Predict the 3D structure of the following.
Amino acid sequence: MDLSTRFMKLSLPNPIIVSSSGLTADIDGVRKAVDAGAGAVVLKSLFEEDIAAGVERSRQNAVVSHPEAEAYMEQLGMLLEPDEYLTFVEDCAGSVDVPVIASLNCHSEKWWTDYAERIEKVGADAIELNLSPIALEQKISAADIENTLVSMVKLARKTVKLPLAVKIGQNYSALPHLVDRIRKAGADSLTLFNRYYKVDINIENIQFKSGNSLSAHEEFGPVLRWIGIISDLTELDISASTGVYNASDLIKVILAGGNAAQFCSVLYRDGMEVIPGVLEDLSAWMEKHEYSELSDFRSLLSLEDDKRNAFFQRLQYVKALKG
Ligand SMILES: Cc1cc2nc3c(=O)[nH]c(=O)nc-3n(C[C@H](O)[C@H](O)[C@H](O)COP(=O)(O)O)c2cc1C
């Protein structure tokens, strides 16, 4: 059975990618993922705030002058030393034989481009840009947010030659249009979707607290729908992220036109041993259906005719209401 796939112009031995997270925040985690059979890994993100705080630290001789960003990142356990990140990328790239995708989390045009360049130099196979511009003021329109996002992709494309994936959230009203702009800006692939950090409130001490950091399996539905809608409209490779838990989900992603699926919460819950199980189940399913490679069934259920799709979706909605 040939499980190989293409994602971000890279050849992966299989379509399981371990997502950017604490699981891929150190070399041991990355090795464990690869030993379990992952086809690629996305390293824990270097956050723009890490870079900003690091730059300030060195500028001011260890005096913190970005206190808010730093306190926030420390609270999330996310603070990384940017230069350590580069060593980490280099070590990973040199020690595993599947693609190593570095990750940059950015929300402005400052700080990170220099690091994108340095990440390329230390041997990453690709970069996933985790882009999360958000509107916190009334004067910022949806178009402004999309323009910011697209200009960050353009900037990254200008800065590095590496394959670029763009990982975005799902709260966009006209995703096909935005995806086309992302492609024209120079991206090679999409990761649909990022799952933003969840915020909750403790009503006893009247403080913010962290919401559930792991996804529920039910969150997979919108991911599948959007991959089905987008995949036929774009040449970008697509990986799924959020709520992918098992081989059935992975098979559905490929049927809908995706190239790979990223696994995260299920690995936190059940460990890396999930990966060989998914690969085994995928092979067994392919054998049963007499498919010998992923391209035999990729896109069989993508939505080729978008008018038919709109009609179909409307029909299901009306049926669900009546039912
Ligand atoms: C503890 C934790 C840390 C994460 N850190 C990052 C990160 O640094 N960069 C990123 O792009 N996504 C990060 N994510 C999001 C995951 O990559 C993934 O997109 C999200 O968890 C949805 O996938 P899942 O349903 O399989 O968990 C993190 C997720 C978790 C649970």
